[in-house]
Design goal:
globular
Length: 294
């Protein structure tokens, strides 16, 4: 019979040593609480609440369309140019929301981190899920728009869209992990993210068509560098799902996209997963000092 007074000889483990993204989804209850907390904090005192998730992208879309589509007359040179813009905007908005809110997530929850031993990755992940929650209304609007103009996707288009969405989610999560940890030590990183966001809109063929890049850099190393950008690759793949199927073969201005996008997308996804693994490693090495720095 075991001695009730005998203490089992087991290695001592830090109560906070439960990190890692794979541990986050074991704490689904805590993750749900954090997501609800972020949503409640964002809409506290707001009359319209979730409706702002429809208003903000609609205003942004109108601004882009009026300036680029009508003033610069891009709409005359592209078939279904509004769908082209909005498909890219949905994806870039998901990335910027994940990246920017994830970067601030540790600082924003410093009181919880100082008091409770839980996986620190919970906070960037919850920010990503909140961003996904706010992307859903835009997806609904986009789906309704493409159905009106005659959307007829193939299974390949569906796979391309899913691949693009996965790339942007993995890349955004990787950067959120890296920058949220760095932001604990140097608050300048959240300002660096703000500067970086200025270039995101222009780094992918969203408010301009890809054929402009092809015309400038077609067949050169510069075009390959452009396509190596995960944001550009994911936006093109997403447009392959929503915009390209609305442009028929008899359209006066056919859809121009790069060749071998599935292969390119799979390579970019593999690289993004590697970046995520490195980000997780760095985050794990730094998280032990979070409470002290905060």
């Amino acid at each position: 019979m075991a001695d009730p007074d005998r203490v089992p000889e087991e290695p001592l483990v830090s109560p906070s040593d439960r990190g890692g993204l794979h541990h986050v989804f074991r704490e689904r209850y805590l993750l749900r609480l954090l997501v609800r907390k972020e949503l409640k904090a964002r809409y506290q005192g707001s009359v319209l609440g979730l409706f702002w998730s429809y208003v903000n992208p609609a205003v942004r879309f109108l601004a882009y369309y009026l300036v680029i589509g009508l003033i610069f007359q891009m709409d005359r040179n592209m078939t279904n140019f509004p769908v082209h813009i909005f498909a890219g905007m949905v994806l870039t908005h998901y990335f910027t929301e994940t990246f920017s809110s994830g970067t601030r997530s540790i600082i924003r929850n410093k009181r919880i981190i100082q008091k409770l031993p839980l996986p620190r990755e919970l906070f960037p992940v919850s920010s990503m899920l909140v961003s996904l929650y706010h992307t859903f209304p835009q997806m609904v609007i986009l789906l309704g728009a493409v159905l009106v103009v005659g959307w007829d996707p193939s299974w390949l288009n569906l796979f391309q869209g899913l691949l693009g969405f996965t790339i942007i989610g993995v890349f955004g999560m990787a950067l959120a992990l890296l920058f949220s940890a760095a932001n604990v030590f140097f608050r300048d990183f959240q300002n660096i993210v703000g500067v970086f966001m200025i270039f995101v809109t222009w780094s992918a063929p969203m408010i301009y068509p890809y054929d402009r890049i092809q015309g400038l850099f077609g067949g050169t190393w510069a075009e390959q560098v452009y396509l190596a950008n995960p944001i550009a690759t994911s936006v093109i793949l997403f447009q392959d799902l929503f915009w390209v199927p609305t442009v028929g073969p008899d359209a006066p201005y056919p859809a121009v996209v790069p060749d071998h996008m599935v292969e390119r997308g799979l390579v970019v996804l593999a690289v993004c997963l590697l970046v995520l693994a490195i980000a997780q490693r760095v985050f794990t090495r730094l998280e032990g000092k979070f409470a002290e720095r905060l």
